[in-house]
Amino acid sequence: MTVMGFIDENKQQHLEELKEFLRIPSISTVPQYQPEVQHAAQWLADHLRTTGMQHIDVVPTPLHPLVYAESPRQDGRPTVLVYGHYDVQPAEPLELWSSPPFEPEVRDGNLYGRGTADDKGQLHTHLKALEALQTFYGRLPLNVKILIEGEEEVGSKSLWQFVRDNQSRLASDALVLSDTSMLAPGVPSLTCALRGLNYYEVEVTGPARDLHSGLYGGAVPNPLTILARALAQFHDKNFRVTVPGFYRDVARLSAAERKALRALPWDETDFRNNVGAPALSGEKGYSILEQIWCRPTFELNGLWGGYIQDGAKTVIPSKAYAKFSTRLVPNQDPDEIATMVEAHFRKLLPNTVSCRFTVLSTGKPWIASSTHPIVQAAATALEQGFGQKTVFIREGGSIPFVAEISALYKIPCVLMGFGLPDENAHAPDEHISLDNYFGGIRSAALFYERLSTLQGEPQ
Amino acid sequence: MTVMGFIDENKQQHLEELKEFLRIPSISTVPQYQPEVQHAAQWLADHLRTTGMQHIDVVPTPLHPLVYAESPRQDGRPTVLVYGHYDVQPAEPLELWSSPPFEPEVRDGNLYGRGTADDKGQLHTHLKALEALQTFYGRLPLNVKILIEGEEEVGSKSLWQFVRDNQSRLASDALVLSDTSMLAPGVPSLTCALRGLNYYEVEVTGPARDLHSGLYGGAVPNPLTILARALAQFHDKNFRVTVPGFYRDVARLSAAERKALRALPWDETDFRNNVGAPALSGEKGYSILEQIWCRPTFELNGLWGGYIQDGAKTVIPSKAYAKFSTRLVPNQDPDEIATMVEAHFRKLLPNTVSCRFTVLSTGKPWIASSTHPIVQAAATALEQGFGQKTVFIREGGSIPFVAEISALYKIPCVLMGFGLPDENAHAPDEHISLDNYFGGIRSAALFYERLSTLQGEPQ
Prior knowledge:
homodimer, alpha+beta, Aminopeptidase, Alpha-Beta Plaits, 2 domains, nine-stranded mixed β-sheet, four-stranded antiparallel β-sheet, 14 helices
């Protein structure tokens, strides 16, 4: 029997354990779920016991706990830092789920439920890979540090603090994580770039109180109209962001990079069908992959104000609200962009309203080389695990921790994603392909074995 | 003892009864309040027994019941149709009320609660005036028909049907109602024009489902952005509505009308303070009173879509929604305007989204002469009731029933309003001045007495 055989024998048990993890609604953005978030952290600590870890801590923070674990130190072996997050996005709108978001269910070769892809299901592949190595060999072939946070969906504040406080303790030869997607089903993919993310919220106030639109309408500033007018001016007719300076530091794509993107086995028709809009729209002059991977965006994420229930209410509201975000690419600086966006927004408002502008979070973009031996080891492991050639891709999403660790330790970051483009992360009917989940466990185990043969740095 | 003395003696009892009426949360726009709406109708029927009515019916309709009552027929006496509505607006946002909206409370000479001004408190003045006349004289001095609806805040559909079905039964010499405001405290006012109201709702759909803004952002149509861009184009820089044809039929103000408006004892500073916005804004070239009384508007009443709870969610929503309305003035036609508004909205949308456009209700504007003997009788009654000269004003709000009855029966409509500009109708802390409530009862009784001396038409 090989480790692979051992992993394949335990498929059903792995799946049942993952379902248990998924049943915990660890929604980090909504305060009332705090006990469930705590429960998920404790669940992880309990289930790390079989993975060969020596120290396992649930680390309290001002918001949601971190889970940190270390294997027994083996000198001369390389050290890998495994990252994941156990928190999930809210499940709303609930009525659009085919099965309840926190009652995981297998249909047509996919496991459905909030967190299946982002990130509980993907994180779980690493725990089961390590468990298999530990059980099969009686010890892990390398040094492992595991860091799992509960605030990925709310800005990772506690994670940053923990990294700052434990900088030498966390030192490793590589970071590995699975929180991204494969380019297409059956195509193992390593992600070599991520966009950064700034998230903002605004409150625009016109009248001091809600007014009757008959008695006042025509003479008073309507904050809904004023907010709509401001937000309407954030893109020009080519769908370029109008914030002055926004593109100043954006890295230009080389001809070779654009060619490599065009050569990828990526199906535009699948993408269009998956989006399901009457037509697509994006920044003029760029391909779809360039738009979603290599170009920065300004995107509205929420908008509300006035009467939003059934029926009619003839009100001019006092306040209007919006949540929006900017996705950032190399070499944009998140803090500079936040300043520019706020200045632009304020400039677009007339003097008839006041405004509260809040930057909820900022996060750097990241880009890395695909030629590092550790990245190449990962590519080979994925190829073996899935039986297909690995491709190097970018992703438009944001994992702020990657940019942070990359800058701090100057180590390679290995992003082996087991999601798929239609996985519905952050949306109803989120799911993970069972082929990818089980292939992920195999690939992670192969990667750790392969990594253990490379030379580690003294820690 | 005079009738006036009799009315003054019963002040406390009138107030306690009104409070009872106000405690019923008869919110017509929200389906779950249906039993409370029914309760309010029954309460009215019970309390009409003391007002000299012979027939009292609670009339079932497809939505909310009507209350209809008639006094015993006295030939040779004029007939008045008294109108009111017992339904109220939703009370949200609840946290901005100083006292609970359905627990009426007197503070500083005002009675606070949802419906105090719009319209339960004002309607109640007529019931108590009739009760006083009936009790004091043993019979009413004229023929009275009372029609009270429960759908004023949702488009009055059942009322129209009832009027069409009972056209000859409802025939009268005058319509009287109190659902408007006085120009200023202590200034008795008769309203001689009202704006019409069309109310619309739109649903704009881009992607077929909610998408992750990282994985898709940059290449897909965001319905929030597209909705904001469309709504931003409904006004030009002078805050004129851009809908083609919108102003085509608008009656121009004569120099005499503009002069009369300027001569009214109306305090712009009070208006500005009452609105409480950093500055006002309205259509260029018109005074504030012209803007809110004589000019049509396009107004956003609600806007929503995406993630609107605490924290952050990086979503591109599938759908975005808006509720908006147009206030109409003579001689705009509501149906024509609805067609124009829909066409304009659809034209502003790109082909990347689909749209569901719904006209929730339409309503005609109304304007009338102030020189009719019945209107003059009302002016005199108000002057006696409040001890101040009556002014003739317009109002920017909409009472669709007035336009309908005016067109159908060609009779004068007497709008004796007892609200005040800062009464917060449709907003938190709605209230009525107790001086106006008690003065209203006196004025209504004086009006009915005066009206009874005029010649009635044979019914």
